[in-house]
Amino acid sequence: MLRNRVFTAVVGGHFMVDVLNSVGAVLLAVLAGPLGLSNQQIGLALTVYTLLGALSQPLFGWIADRLPGRTLQLAALGVVWMALCYTGVALAPNWTVLLPCFLLAALGSGLFHPIGTASAAAAVPDKPASATAIFFFGGQAGLAVGPILAGIVLAAAGTPGIVPVALAAIVPAGVLLLAQQTARSRRTARAAAPAAPQVWTALAIAVLLAFVALVVVRSSIQAVYQSFLPKLFSDRGWEPTVYGALAGTFMATAAVGNVLNGWMADRFGMRAATVWPLILSVPAGLACFLATPLWAIFIACGLAGMLVGGQHSILVVHAQRILPVKQGLASGLILGFTFATGAIGTWLSGILADAVGLETVMIGVTLLGLPAAALALTLPGRARPAAAPAAAPTPAAAPAPAQGD
C-alpha cells in the first residue's frame, strides 16, 4: 500500500494540509497582541474558517468528478493555495489584510479533502477502508504536529517563521503533480466497469436514513469530546498541562483507532468494525468521567478516543459506495456533513451544559453510543467470497452430437 505512489502522495498532502490547518489558531493567538485582536475577532475568524472549509467540499468534489484526469493537479493546487494564503497571514500588517488571507486558506483545505479522500480509496481498491483510514491518520498526525511546530518557529523567529513552514507545502504539492501521471496511466490501462443502476426501494431509503442518523450521532459524540474534555477537567481544578495532555491523548488514540477500524472493516466487515467499538465506547467514556485515579482517567480517555473516533474512515468509505453520485462529490458531501453536524452537536451540548451541568451532558452524550450502535447494524457485514465459476466440460465429457445433425 505504501509503495503506491498516488496513495503516498495524497497521504503526504493530507499531512501538510492539516499542519497548516492547525497552525492557524496558534498564529492568530500570537498576532492578537501586535494587531490588537479581540477574542471575539479570533473566535469569529476560526468559526468562519471551519465552515468555509466544510461547506465548500461538496462543490469542489463535484468539480473534481468532472475533471477526472486532473484530480491530483487540483489537490496540488489546494496545497499551494494554502501555502500562499498562510504566507500572507504571517506577513499581514493589519487585520484588514490578515482576515481575507486566513479565510481564503480554508478553500484550499476544502479543495484538497474530497479529492484526497476519493483518491486514497481508489488507489488501493482491494482495501479501501484501510487506505482511507491511513489517509485520515496522516491528517491527524498533521493536526498534532502543527501546533508544536508553530510554537517552536514562533518562539524562535516570530510570525515570519511561519513563512518557511507554509512554503514547505510546495514539496508535497510537487509529489502530487508527479503522481498524476501514474494515476493517468492506471486509468488508461483499467477499463471502468459500468455502474449498476441504483434502485431506491423503501428498504434502501430506510437504510440510507439510518446511515445519515448514524453519522449525525457519531460525529456529535466525537466533536463534544474534543470540544469539552478540557473544560470539564478545568472545572475540576486540573492544571492546563494535564487536561491538555488528556485532550491530546483522546486525539492521538482516535487516529490510531481509524487505522485499526479500517483493518477490521476490510477483514470482518463494516458492521462489526462499527457496532462493537460504539458499544464498548460507553463504559470507556463513563470510566473517563467517573474514575478518580489520574492513571485510570487517562487510560479510559485513550480507550474512548480509539473507540469513538475510529469509525470516521469507515463511514466515509460507505458513503462513497451508497450515495448516488460520483466519488469526489460523495467524499465532499460526507466530510462536509460530518464536520457541520459535529459543530451543531457541540453548540447544542454547550447550551444544555449551561442548564444542567457539563458532566451530566458528557455522560448523556457518551450513552448515545448505544443508539449509534443500533443504527450501525444497518451497515454491510463481511463480504462473502464469490463462488468459483463452474468448470467447462472437457471435450471427452461433452455429449456426442446426434446423428443427422
Automatic annotation (TrEMBL):
Cross-referenced CDD domains: MFS_FsR
Any one GO MF annotation of this record: transmembrane transporter activity
Residues in Major facilitator superfamily (MFS) profile domain copies: 6-384
GO terms under cellular component: plasma membrane
Sequence intervals crossing the membrane: 7-30, 42-64, 71-91, 97-122, 134-156, 162-179, 199-221, 241-260, 272-291, 297-317, 329-348, 360-379
Subcellular location: Cell membrane
Descriptive protein name: MFS transporter
Organism: Chloroflexus islandicus
